[in-house]
């Protein structure tokens, strides 16, 4: 049995001014300052990245993420940001292909793949998002959609790069709706994702890749979701805007990590 360190990431989306971000970090550190069993990532808007880093100070247990990036290193791309610029801000992770980017800004699997490869070239770790809409689920196309998204988004990544990639399964119908997949539905999708990852690489690599669940994760359902064998953490949206709620989700992941270590 491969023991994967859980990863819980806060996706603030287009929320938080600099002062609010600093206050959030201050409150969060009071709750989880000494947590090391779980990897914690905060993905603020670009304007608050530097302030979050400053507020974290010497805290080593929380990493900075970004919510998007361009695949080119530099150039005439008004309004975009490059991997090198993110590295300059001490960013370690970058969310790529979030369903909102796919739906609102037309990002395709090919674009997601370009971004993923550019992230690895810059030693950033991509969190690659995949997931089906409600219509696709009701038509029985969940596996077809996930397979297409994974194969397109992860094309040409090496086994080493895949190991350093996090996959976030986010059923589109559960994002910001208050609805969430049941633990059984989520586990079924995560298990299928790991099966596809094995086809893209090998069993050992697939067993090392961490797969998060994202889709109306909150304190009340976090533990049940993250206790599933193939769910290795959470990509948290709305509940990550409150430091105490987010801390409780991180603590739920810690409890499950400790149980997994004992049973390994």
- The N- to C-terminal Cα distance equals 7 Å
The CATH superfamily appears as Aldolase class I
Count of beta strands: 8
Order of helices and strands: EHEHEHEHHEHHHEHHEHEH
Question: How large is the count of helical segments?
Answer: 12
Write the CATH architecture name.
Answer: Alpha-Beta Barrel
Mean pLDDT, as a whole number? 94
Structural class determined from secondary elements: alpha/beta
Instruction: Assign the CATH topology.
Output: TIM Barrel
- Which CATH C-level class is it? Alpha Beta
Q: Categorize the overall geometry.
A: globular
Taking all Cα atoms into account, the compactness measure Rg is: 17 Å
Percent strand equals 5-15%
Poorly predicted runs: none
Count of the domains: 1
Largest beta sheet: what is the strand line-up? 7-6-5-4-3-2-1-8
Largest sheet: 8 strands, parallel
Q: State the share of residues found in helices, binned by percent.
A: 40-55%
Describe the structure.
The protein has 264 residues and is of the alpha/beta class. The chain has a single domain (7-263), classed as TIM Barrel, CATH 3.20.20.70. Helices cover 47% and strands 14% of the residues. It contains twelve helices and eight strands. The protein has helices at 18-32, 49-56, 83-88, 99-105, 109-121, 134-138, 142-153, 159-163, 183-200, 203-208, 219-226, 243-263, and strands at 7-11, 39-43, 62-66, 93-96, 125-130, 166-169, 210-213, 233-236. An eight-stranded parallel sheet has the order 7-6-5-4-3-2-1-8. Strand 1, helix 1 and strand 2 (39-43) form a beta-alpha-beta unit. Helix 1 runs parallel beside helix 2 (49-56) and helix 9 (183-200) packs across helix 11. The radius of gyration is 17 Å and the shape is globular. It starts with 6 loop residues before the first strand and ends with a helix. The mean pLDDT is 94.
């Amino acid at each position: 049995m491969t023991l994967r360190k859980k990863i819980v990431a806060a996706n603030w989306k287009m929320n938080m001014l600099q002062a609010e971000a600093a206050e959030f970090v201050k409150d969060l550190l009071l709750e989880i300052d000494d947590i090391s069993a779980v990897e914690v990532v905060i993905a603020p808007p670009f304007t608050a990245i530097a302030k979050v880093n400053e507020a974290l100070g010497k805290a080593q247990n929380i990493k900075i993420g970004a919510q998007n990036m361009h695949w080119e290193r530099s150039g005439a791309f008004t309004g975009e940001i490059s991997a090198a610029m993110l590295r300059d801000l001490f960013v370690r992770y970058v969310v790529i292909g979030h369903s909102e980017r796919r739906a609102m800004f037309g990002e395709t699997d090919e674009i997601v793949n370009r971004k993923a490869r550019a992230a690895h070239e810059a030693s950033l770790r991509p969190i690659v998002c995949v997931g089906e809409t409600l219509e696709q689920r009701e038509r029985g196309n969940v596996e077809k959609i996930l397979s297409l998204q994974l194969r397109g988004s992860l094309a040409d990544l090496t086994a080493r790069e895949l190991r350093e990639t996090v996959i976030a399964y986010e059923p589109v119908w559960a994002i910001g709706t208050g609805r969430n997949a049941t633990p059984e539905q989520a586990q079924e999708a995560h298990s299928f994702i790991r099966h596809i990852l094995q086809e893209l690489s090998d069993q050992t690599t697939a067993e090392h890749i961490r797969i998060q669940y994202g889709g109306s994760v909150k304190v009340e359902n976090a533990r049940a979701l993250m206790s599933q064998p193939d769910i290795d953490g959470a990509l948290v949206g709305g509940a990550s805007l409150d430091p105490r709620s987010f801390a409780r989700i991180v603590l739920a992941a810690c409890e499950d990590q400790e149980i997994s270590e004992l049973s390994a």
